[in-house]
Amino acid sequence: MSAPPALQIREANAHLAAVHRRAAELEARLDAAERTVRAQAERLARHDQQLRAALEELGRSKDREIAALREQLLTSEAAVHSLQAAVQQKDELIRQLQPRAEMLQDICRHRPPLAGLLAALAEAERLGPLLASDPGGPGPPLANSLGEEGGRDHLQPVGFGTTV
Each residue's pLDDT tens digit in the chain (164 positions)? Predict the structure, then answer.
């Protein structure tokens, strides 16, 4: 067998060198792609961890807010019960005071005639009793309404006063 000519060897060597460069280039691109994938995986893992932490914090925040709202609800319910009890007490007080209010309204309706009566009694008191020596007087003192003439000791002298 004869040796291949030098031109073929050079072409074969050039071809092998080109294949070797191409393999090295592909290996470099593969390494770069693997580094990129690892970096992306690490970023995704960190991002996933951050999202999980944020989700957990959101859950804790939601639980705290629910607890605060429950506490507020209990406080509000207690306030409602307290106000309902106060309303019942006020209603009972109103029920107790209603007859007195009606009585005071009756008194107020009767006040003007009573004021007139009191004014007339005050005027009569100001005029004073009749004197027996008054020549223009109406006559002898009045007896009681039973018509009894004797026993005037039990009668009191007539005088107007404002003792009501």
Answer: 677 888 899 999 999 999 999 999 999 999 999 999 999 999 999 999 999 999 999 999 999 999 999 999 999 999 999 999 999 999 999 999 999 999 999 989 999 888 899 999 999 998 888 776 555 555 555 444 444 444 445 545 555 555 54
Cβ within 8 Å of residue 132, ≥6 positions away: 140, 141
Distance, first Cα to last Cα, the chain:
162
* CA dist., res. 34 & res. 28, Å (int): 10
| Number of residues assigned to the chain | 164
| Paired tokens of 24 | 């090295």
User: Could you tell me if 98 and 142 are in contact, meaning their C-beta atoms sit under 8 angstroms apart?
Assistant: no
Per the listing, tokens 């693997």 go with 34
Structure tokens at 140: 């002898």
Q: Considering only CA atoms, which of 146, 75, 135 is closest in space to residue 83?
A: 75
